[in-house]
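quick one before i forget lol
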Amino acid sequence: MGKYYFKIQDQDDVLQPDRSFDFADLEEAENEAKNLLAEMAVDGLPGAKLDSLSVELQDENHVPLITVRLVMEVIPHGFRDA
């Protein structure tokens, strides 16, 4: 069992972790980071033409292990009449 923290960044701000979560191993913690990112996306995708949501998984010493990121990019293909 290990302690992990989630640092969350969305289009508005960065939420620094202050509460640890226990997981059996890194794989289980990574899966939870992915689920958390998916829940964030359901709550609202970024509104800018290029923006992202991310969850940084940290160990018990707040050392970053992985970052799971969802990037929203709007790419125009030609011009449209308004």
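fyi The chain has one helix and five strands.
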